[in-house]
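sorry for the late reply, my laptop died twice this morning and i had to redo everyting from scratch. anyway the thing you sent over, i finally got around to it. pasting the sequence first so we're on the same page, its 558 residues, then the predicted structure underneath. double check i copied it right bc i was rushing
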Amino acid sequence: MRRSEAAKTATRLLGAIVVLGALYVGIAWWTSRQVPADMTVEGVSVGGLSVDQASERLTTQLGPVAAAPITITTPNSGPSFSIDPHTAGLTLDIPATLQGLGEFTLNPVTVWANLTGKTDRPAVKVIDRDALTAAVTEGAHSVNEAPVDGAIAVDTGAAKITPAQDGVDVVVSDTVSAIIQAWPRVPSVTAKTAAVAPKISQSAVDEAVRTFVTPALSGPLTLRLGEKTVALTPDRFGAAITLTPDSDKLVPTFDKDKLAALATEATSAFVTPAKDASIVLDGSAPVVRPSVDGVAVDVTPAPDLMISAMTATDRTVTLTTTVSKPKFTTEAAQALGVKEIVASFDSAFPTDVNRTINLTLASNTINGTLIKPGETFSMNGILGERTVAKGYREGNYIAGGGRLAKTVGGGVSQVSTVIYNIAWFAGVQLTEHHPHSFYISRYPAGREATVNWPTLDNKWTNNTPYGMLVQMWVSGGQVHGRMWSTKIYDVQSISGPRTNIRTGKVVTVTTPGCVPMGMADGFDITVTRVISQRGVVIKSEPYTTKYDAADTIICTAP
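ok and here's the structure:
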C-alpha cells in the first residue's frame, strides 16, 4: 500500500515535470519567433517584431540617420566641416546587428529576456578607418588655423609689430576615434584639436625689441667729418633695417647699399667735386684749362660704422675725406695735341635775316666741340631738334619733289657743309653724310652735306691719336670752320667731270606757300679724297654724287 502510494506520487511528479517541461519548451519556441519585447537598436524600437520586421524598420529609420552628413565642429564655436559617411567608409550591418535573434534556445536567461527584458542593442558598424582618416584629414585643411609668426617691420623710423599667435590643428587620429564612437547616434562631433606654436614666438619678438629695435631707433645717428656734423634721424636710416627670421629668432639685417647712399647724400655738402680739364678757344687759339682735384667723403666704412652705432652708447660715426681725381686731367688734355689748324673751310651765303640767325645759332652751338680719339661727331646729336624755343626761325629747305619750302631751322645745311669739308680735309673717317637732292652752286659739287631732324645726320669719327677741336663762327656773310689738332695727314680733293647732264623745266605754281627757285642742271660727279702721310698715299676714297635737275618754279599765288 505504501509502495503503491509512493509510486503514484512519483508518477504524478514526473508527469508534472513533463508538462512543465513541455510548457517551457513551448514558451521558448514561441519567444524565439520574435525580437525581445522592449529591445531598441540605436534608439529605434524593434521589440516584439519578427527579425524580418525589425530589419525593415531599422533599414527605414536608422538608414537615413546613418547616411546623413556628419558635422565636425571645432572648440569654442570655431569653423566646421562635414564628411559623407559613405565616402568616409562608415556603413551599418543590419543583419549582423540582429544576429542571434529568432533562433531557438532553452537558455532561461534568454527566454526570460525575450519575455520581459529591456535591451538596447548597438548597431554593428563597418568601419574603413583608412577612408575615414583620409576624409577627416581633407576636411581638417579647411579649419586648421596656421600659426602667425611674430614679426617686426621698421617703417618711417618706428617699429610695427605683428604679435605671434598659436595656430590650431585638428588631431586627426583622436577625431576619427570620436566619430567612430558617436556615429550614427550623434549627428555632429567636436574635433580634437591641438595648438601649433609659431616658429617666431612672442618672446622672440620681445627679445628683438629689447636688444635691438628700441636702442637702434632711440635717436639720430651723427655723421662727423672733422668739425662738421650732420644728423640722420631714424626715419631715414630705418629704411635700411629688416628684422629677418633666423631659426626661432628675429635678427637684424641691413641694406648696406642704402646706408652708403644715405651717407653719401648726407655728406654731399662737404664734397667739392673734381673739375675736369678742358680745351677751349681763347682768342684765336685753343688753350688747356687745367683740371682741379676735388674733396670726396670716404663712405666705404660708413655702413658698418652706422650699424655698430645704432646700439652703441655713442651714436657718432666718424668719416674721413679723400682726394677725388678728375676724369679728364690736365695731362690728358695736353696729350691730345690740340695745337694747330689741320683743316679749314669757309662758305658764303646769301643775305637773309632768318637764315643768318639760324646759321649763327647752329655755329655757336657747335663751336668748341672736342672730339677725342675714337669718338664720333654727330651734328644732330649736338644741335638736337631745331625749334622756335631754341631761337631758330623759318628758312628754306628742299622738300619732297625737289621743291623749296619753309621750315624752322632751314639753312643749317650750310653749317653742315662746312663741317663736312673740314672733316674731309682733316682726313678723319666720314661716317655719314647726305648730299642735297639737287646741286646748289655756292657749295663744291660732290662735297657738301645736308641734315634734317631726325632722319639725316652728318657724322664723322676721329680715327687719329689726337683730339679734334671744332671752331665755327659766322662773319662777313660767310660760315667759317676750322679743325684744330696735330697734323698727320695731307689731303687732296680731286673732282671728276660732270656727266649725264639733266635739264629741268619751267613750272608755274598757283598754290599759296610757293617758294620761287631757279633752274639748275642735274649731273653725276665723282670726287676723290686722297690721303697721304709723309708723302705716301695711304688711302684713296672716291665719292659719287647724282644730282637731280632742279626746275624753275614761278609762283603766281597772291
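The chain is about 30% helix and 30% strand.
thats about all i looked at so far, will dig more tmrw
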